Amino acid sequence: MAEGTGRPGAYRKGIARRRQILDHAIDLFAERGVDGASLRSVADVIGVSHAALRHYFSSRDELLVEAYREHERRHSRSEDPAEGGPVAQMVRSADSNRVVPGLVQLYATLTADALQERHPLTREFVQARFARVRAELAEAVALGQREGRIAADLDPADAAALVVAASDGLQVQWLLDPGGVDVRRSLELLERLLPSRAGRTGGDG
Amino acid sequence: MAEGTGRPGAYRKGIARRRQILDHAIDLFAERGVDGASLRSVADVIGVSHAALRHYFSSRDELLVEAYREHERRHSRSEDPAEGGPVAQMVRSADSNRVVPGLVQLYATLTADALQERHPLTREFVQARFARVRAELAEAVALGQREGRIAADLDPADAAALVVAASDGLQVQWLLDPGGVDVRRSLELLERLLPSRAGRTGGDG
């Protein structure tokens, strides 16, 4: 952060430049995945110098994390987490991911990196993201319980972890076998366990 | 493979030596994970020369794949895939993984590598493994349907992909937050959807 340097113009310009680089990086990862992406190779492809890229992102991990964070920020802006229900939410997210397998691959890479000691920044990001997404989904499950849609004896935190896991795991299987796995259909089986507000499983109306 | 070299003694000895190296590698990964494991660093730790290790495993990918394959072979020997039910099977497997987080990390690494072009051998292994595990679980779901335990309108292949995904995803979340995620409890929620033979959800006996 460059606050307090007394050069607000340069600061704003820096922010804009950083965002522009992120845009290019997101497009690049979406199109080609993160396969072997080093800061140097990313700089080459998006047409900035290695030094310029390093000025904004001190490591490959930071670039990957910030690219994914920005991608999610854009997508979540138009979404109400509680809308529909916990499963409907993950189905919508999986649907939008299907058009950009490169970003699903980026997410899987971040998750795998997070499991290893050498990637503390990635680990922190992924841990915090999991905690936040689980908390949001647990909230949606608890709401469904108050509304009488979801069985009251089901633990919201356990259910939230299950829905996140199913969504993550199904997207990995789909990337490896697009014809053999249908993310939406498999995820929608969870609607039987955790019905959404406008559920397809209803028959009492 | 060294078949047909006319030296059955040397061949047998080679097999034994390879297995011995695999044993050490599995222990090493179980204890310390695969963090940054190169062939050279693995050779150092298990006390063989880099050249000897390369004689048996031509790449890091091959060593990781073969170590995981051997680990699974040992564990699956005593298991009947149809026993209990599709969910019970994954719960047992998750229980046995919990004592060796390093091997859960190895599995996550293989899965992430499989998504990238640079790891064709890993990709082939993970694709084949997913296809096999899904087929076994779909079989267990279909059996449950024939026995009247599992809803007949549920697609066995969709359900199988869901169970594998939930199990994989939950183990990743657990590795990152052992206190915040209970793999067994979350997985067991799927018993409500796919009851096992000796199900805990019964109440009609």
Automatic annotation (TrEMBL), chains A, B:
Ranges annotated as DNA-binding: 38-57
This protein's UniProt keywords: DNA-binding, Repressor, Transcription, Transcription regulation
Matching InterPro entries: BetI_C (IPR039538), Homeodomain-like_sf (IPR009057), HTH-type_TetR-like_transc_reg (IPR050109), HTH_TetR (IPR001647), Tet_transcr_reg_TetR-rel_C_sf (IPR036271)
SUPFAM superfamilies reported for this sequence: Homeodomain-like (SSF46689), Tetracyclin repressor-like, C-terminal domain (SSF48498)
HTH tetR-type domain span: 15-75
Keyword Cytoplasm attached: no
Keyword Isomerase on entry: no
Pfam families: TetR_C_6 (PF13977), TetR_N (PF00440)
Name of this protein: TetR/AcrR family transcriptional regulator
Species in which this protein is naturally found: Kineococcus mangrovi
